[in-house]
């Protein structure tokens, strides 16, 4: 008589689901962290990357790979070479993997001031321990970048749009400097997105995104991604596996889903940001507005040539930094007086958010960063521009006379 399997065995060896006969419009979420092989030879080939497929969730996952390839397709729409991608658990995990992959002890990196606080801290507080040197210079004049180049410079790092001053990088000019120096040009394009600018088309070797922000777009997941030439991305994959910065399949699903509305969201956000910045700049309590769409912004002309245009005109990004008169206290008071706009971290969500810059991570930048102690960054969402303008106008009106 054939023995029936025990109840515990039966419960964990359930029948596998049949694949549906029709193709789903929504991609599936593959949560499995382990994969079944027909024999040990197949198992060995998968782990040695000698055959296509998936072996272990730490290394690869089809949902995560789908997100990375989708971003690569957007960033590489008109790139001169093939483009591949790797997804990471966060934007900083992507930045860390890029710098750890292409820098060694004794190497040198040139980076801009201002620079995102997390990246600045990684370079100065972590990589410096391992013998990586760095120079931070203003990218407004490319002569400063050239002067900072050393024989051991391996990376020129840039941000398409800096956070929070919204400085615009001359990617084409940086490309020429990087090529002459034999260095890689790495561009963080989080605040531009491929809807505003695609740095690979202008000479960048690698493009990084904190996907937590605009790519996901709904403040409900975290992730990062890097895209570029397949040979560079293959090296990144090895470091990602070794350092464990793997993106979860559930977050990858949400991030990929966000890409389908990215164009619609970013176009509207950029249009609203332009109206918002122009209106707020007229308020007597405002000392300065940082937004490249304004003619007085130092990067305005560069942005007009570098950034994409649509029916609504050139897209200049969706973040506006307002600096009221009155210093640190005025900036805090402005943020605290807002009613419609919440004080919150991150950017790129459907709701507009405000952050007093010096109260957050960017306060680590110190002197020379170009970040004023009063600055308040607004990440513009999908609300009506009139409502946002009214909210910030009332907040500015409430500032004490010393802030006028």
How are the SSEs placed, and which strands pair?
Blueprint: H1 7-12, H2 40-47, H3 62-75, E1 84-88, H4 91-102, E2 108-112, H5 117-126, E3 133-137, H6 142-148, E4 153-159, H7 171-181, E5 184-188, H8 193-196, E6 206-210, E7 224-228, H9 230-243, H10 249-259, H11 262-280, E8 286-290, H12 300-306, E9 309-310, E10 313-314, E11 319-324, H13 327-337, E12 353-356, E13 376-379, H14 385-397
Parallel strand pairs: 2-3, 2-4, 4-5, 5-6
Antiparallel strand pairs: 1-7, 6-7, 8-11, 9-10, 11-13, 12-13
Helix pairs in contact: 3-10, 4-9, 11-14, 13-14
Offer a concise description of the structure:
This protein has 404 residues and is of the alpha/beta class. The chain is built from 14 helices and 13 strands.
Features:
7-stranded mixed sheet, alpha/beta, 36% helix, 4-stranded antiparallel sheet
| Main sheet summary | 7 strands, mixed
What is the SS-derived class?
alpha/beta
**If you compute it from the alpha carbons, what radius of gyration comes out, rounded to the nearest whole angstrom?**
23 Å
Strand order of the largest sheet: 1-7-6-5-4-2-3
The 3D shape can be described as globular
- The amount of helix comes to 25-40%
Mean pLDDT: 94
Tell me the series of helices and strands, N- to C-terminal. Answer: HHHEHEHEHEHEHEEHHHEHEEEHEEH
**Span from first to last CA?**
92 Å
Identify low-pLDDT runs: none
Care to count the β-strands?
13
Give the strand content: 5-15%
Count of helical stretches: 14
């Amino acid at each position: 008589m054939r023995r029936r399997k025990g109840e515990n065995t039966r419960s964990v060896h359930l029948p596998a689901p049949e694949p549906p006969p029709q193709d789903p419009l929504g991609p599936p979420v593959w949560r499995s962290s382990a994969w079944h092989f027909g024999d040990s030879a197949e198992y060995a080939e998968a782990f040695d990357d000698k055959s296509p497929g998936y072996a272990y969730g730490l290394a690869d996952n089809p949902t995560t790979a789908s997100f990375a390839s989708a971003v690569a397709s957007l960033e590489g729409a008109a790139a001169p070479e093939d483009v591949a991608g790797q997804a990471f658990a966060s934007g900083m995990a992507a930045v860390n993997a890029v710098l750890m992959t292409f820098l060694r002890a004794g190497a040198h990196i040139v980076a801009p001031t201002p620079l995102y606080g997390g990246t600045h801290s990684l370079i100065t507080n972590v990589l410096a321990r391992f013998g990586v040197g760095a120079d931070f210079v203003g990218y407004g004049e490319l002569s400063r970048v050239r002067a900072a180049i050393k024989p051991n410079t391996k990376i020129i790092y840039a941000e398409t749009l800096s956070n929070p001053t919204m400085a615009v990088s001359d990617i084409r000019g940086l490309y020429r400097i990087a090529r002459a120096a034999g260095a890689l040009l790495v561009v963080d394009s989080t605040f531009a997105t491929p809807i505003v600018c695609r740095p690979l088309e202008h000479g960048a070797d690698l493009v990084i995104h904190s996907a937590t922000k605009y790519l996901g777009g709904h403040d409900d997941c975290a992730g990062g991604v890097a895209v570029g030439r397949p040979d560079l991305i293959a090296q990144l994959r090895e470091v990602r596996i070794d350092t464990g910065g793997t993106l979860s399949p559930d977050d990858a699903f949400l991030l990929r889903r966000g890409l389908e509305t990215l164009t619609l969201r970013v176009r509207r956000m950029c249009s609203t940001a332009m109206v918002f910045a122009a209106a707020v700049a007229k308020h007597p309590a405002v000392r300065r507005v940082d937004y490249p769409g304004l003619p007085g912004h130092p990067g305005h002309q560069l942005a007009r040539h570098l950034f994409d245009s649509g029916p609504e005109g050139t897209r200049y990004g969706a973040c506006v930094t307002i600096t009221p008169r009155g210093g640190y206290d005025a900036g805090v008071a402005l943020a605290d007086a807002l009613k419609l706009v919440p004080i919150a971290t991150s950017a790129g969500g459907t709701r507009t958010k405000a952050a007093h810059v010096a109260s957050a991570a960017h306060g680590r930048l110190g002197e020379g960063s170009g970040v004023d102690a009063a600055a308040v960054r607004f990440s513009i969402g999908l609300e009506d521009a009139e409502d946002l303008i009214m909210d910030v106008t009332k907040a500015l009106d409430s500032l004490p006379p010393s802030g006028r």
